[in-house]
Design brief:
Immunoglobulin-like; TIM Barrel; 3 domains; eight-stranded parallel β-sheet; 43 strands
Length: 676
């Protein structure tokens, strides 16, 4: 049975209820369930869009129907199969329906496979199902986005992606297709996305309903902007955000951190942010400075402000049993629960606050306000926000909003929401939080994502390039990476110094320019026991080697200094790119095809990118490489290093000595990008 309610088209057949709703100017929200009705939206990434549809229609013709919304049309066949078309009548995507022994639609083929496009497999005795949704694979189709996976692939066709959050893996289930549509799997369940040659398949291990959003656009920019309208846009990037960020694991004391800040100023180097890493606290879950090592935070903040430097402080969601807040949080139900066995985290006897519980978020924010905000701190580094549970045993954890298998991927969004709403209530604007993980919609809570605890080598550096582009297409214009990688880089190694230089050059042309890492050899305070295994207390006396730009010798220092000042010259240009991100959802770091969708070669380039529309960056990601080939799209381009003007629409070979990264600026825009 087909029927209409407002801008919604419903189909009831046997145990399935299907709803197709006009959502946004050119999109549909598609839901299906085998329960009595649909869930509320607590597990949804969607918000009511700014641009509601004013051009939508529904036609019902017996046991089939058509619903149109702007550029997108959906045909519902008599079998229940869905087919999506653009405004020119071109088929974009269709469900994978291989069945027989039933009334069939004209032009559709029968199949002995007996595979339905929407398969609900019940978990017996519960209201939950394993869900599989399949679409026909199209020859030559390319997929982009999906968050961040540590791999060198920009085009995800042929990839199987785990829909789960891990350290250095971020599941944001939104993809842009080269066929002219965008698709959001609006479900935070643990699952899988497979972009095969024979089928495209989305699975949720445990869910109560199918829920996805789809849109059509004439180019990637239209698709991205439509997605931003229904999931939210980043705030306006604060001015300090486009400058240089200094960080390491870890500044142990207040005086150590201040001495580093003073040295940057003494050398006349530009610096905007400095960061206090983890275990500056008395215990995990106390959410406060340890006065032994940080005796006067207000004085520290004041001195940094006078130097023009913002202070960021690490906040973990972990709560130790010996924390002063553990018993209260346990009593009130503010902690993640296990289905079996004791609560377990990753360091010491700890667990995690339940960020999906609004009361838990309010409780923790009050601690952050009292112990950090009221002392002048406005910037929070929200680490461990996957959360990084022991061995990622997804079937053993339960949140306020449901089991981890059903709701787990939403956790980082809710953790970012805690800081955003707390700061917003205090009257703060242009809110930013550095986060290690995210889900669709996290961007509207000021999420600045980085790539997690990646290794310090060239292979991983190469992965950062595609990670940054795909995160941008996933709705996250604010993105950064640990320059030099997080762990494994020895500051005395010549090989690592080369990798560090190339990473630093790349970082200077990322949306956020941030130096961080756990450098070797490790340093332990004399007479103390450092971190060993589960002895988290040892972190209070453990640090990595120095990780400032002068820590690697004069040669490295001079190269770093060169790019720090280039970055400083680019900040007005970057501010405008951040404004576009805020207003339209435009990714700051993006593939060439984003601005050149008609250029077939631009869709094939995976190792260079655009920073805004006017800067093309081609990073060096291999050892001992001093030149590389690259593609310049149409127009004239100026080599940043040599100032040579080259015509686009061609492949070129460019020199790249150790002190140079190939960067090209659109001709006529040079003085607007590099301001003297």
């Amino acid at each position: 049975m087909l029927y209409q309610e407002g801008k919604k088209l419903f189909r009831r057949f046997d145990k399935e209820l299907l709803c197709i709703e006009a959502y946004g100017a050119d999109g549909f929200r598609i839901r299906a369930t085998q329960l009595r009705g649909f869930q509320d939206d607590v597990l949804s990434a969607l918000i009511r869009p700014e641009k509601e549809s004013i051009d939508s229609d529904i036609w019902i013709n017996g046991d089939s129907a058509v619903i149109r919304n702007g550029k997108l049309k959906c045909e519902v066949l008599c079998t229940g199969k869905l087919k999506f078309y653009n405004q020119r009548g071109e088929l974009l995507v269709e469900e994978y329906d291989h069945n027989r022994f039933r009334p069939n639609a004209p032009g559709e083929s029968d199949s002995a496979l007996e595979i339905t496009p929407r398969m609900f497999t019940p978990h017996r005795g519960t209201d939950s199902y394993k869900l599989s949704v399949r679409f026909e694979a199209k020859e030559g189709e390319r997929f982009y986005g999906m968050g961040q996976y540590s791999q060198p692939f920009l085009n995800l066709k042929g990839c199987v992606l785990e829909l789960s959050q891990r350290n250095s893996q971020i599941s944001v289930p939104f993809t842009i297709s080269s066929r002219g549509y965008g698709f959001l799997w609006n479900n935070p369940a643990i699952g899988k996305a497979a972009f095969g040659r024979n089928v495209t398949e989305w699975t949720a291990d445990s869910t109560r309903q199918m829920d996805y959003w789809i849109t059509a656009g004439d180019d990637p920019a239209q698709i991205e902007e439509a997605y931003a309208d229904v999931t939210g846009k980043v705030p306006m990037m604060p001015n300090y955000g486009t400058g240089f960020w200094q960080c390491k694991l870890r500044y142990r004391t207040q005086e150590e951190l201040l001495s580093v800040a003073r040295e940057y100023k003494r050398r006349g180097l530009p610096i905007s942010v400095i960061v206090i890493d983890f275990f500056h606290w008395t215990a995990q879950g106390d959410f406060q400075f340890d006065p032994e090592f940080w005796p006067d935070p207000e004085k520290m903040v004041k001195e940094l402000k006078e130097m023009g430097i913002e202070l960021m402080v690490s906040v973990w969601p972990t709560v130790e049993e010996n924390s002063e807040n553990f018993r209260d949080m346990e009593e009130m139900g503010y902690l993640i629960r296990t289905e079996m066995g004791p609560r377990m985290g990753v360091k010491n006897k700890d667990t995690y606050m339940d960020a999906t519980n609004p009361e838990a978020r309010a409780f923790v924010w009050e601690k952050l306000k009292k112990n950090y905000y009221d002392k002048g701190i406005r910037l929070f580094w929200l680490d461990e926000c996957e959360p990084e549970l022991t061995k990622y045993e997804y079937d053993n954890y339960r949140f306020f909003l449901g089991t981890q298998k059903e709701a787990g991927n939403i956790y980082p969004k809710e953790f970012a929401r805690m800081a955003y709403e707390g700061l917003e209530a205090e009257g703060e604007e242009n809110i930013l939080s550095l986060v290690r993980c995210a889900w669709a919609g996290s961007q509207r809570y000021g999420a600045l994502v980085w790539t997690g605890d990646v290794a310090s080598d060239f292979a991983i550096l190469k992965n950062q390039v595609t990670a940054g582009m795909n995160m941008g297409l996933s709705g996250f214009p604010w993105w950064t990476t640990d320059i030099g990688g997080f762990h494994g880089g020895n500051i005395y190694s010549e090989e690592f110094k080369e990798c560090f230089i190339r990473w630093f050059q790349f970082g200077a042309f990322c949306p956020v320019f941030r130096l961080h890492g756990f450098r070797e050899p490790r340093v332990v305070e004399p007479g103390q026991t450092g971190f060993q295994g589960g002895n988290a207390e040892g972190w209070k006396y453990t640090s990595g080697s120095p990780n400032e730009v002068w820590s690697y010798g004069e040669k490295v220092y001079e190269i770093c200094k060169k790019y720090m000042f280039i970055r400083e010259q680019m900040r007005p240009y970057l501010k405008e790119q951040m404004r576009m991100a805020h207003e339209k959802g435009t990714p700051v770091m993006r593939p060439l095809f984003y601005d050149y969708p008609e250029d077939k070669k631009a869709w094939e380039v995976e190792d260079e990118y655009l920073l805004g529309a006017d800067v093309l960056v081609a990073p060096i990601t291999e050892k001992d490489v001093r030149e590389r080939g690259l593609y310049l799209p149409e127009g004239s381009w100026v080599n940043l290093d040599s100032k040579e003007v080259l015509q686009g629409g061609q492949n070129i070979t460019c020199r790249a000595e150790l002190d140079t990264i190939p960067v090209f600026i659109r001709d006529g825009k040079f003085d607007q990008v590099i301001q003297k």
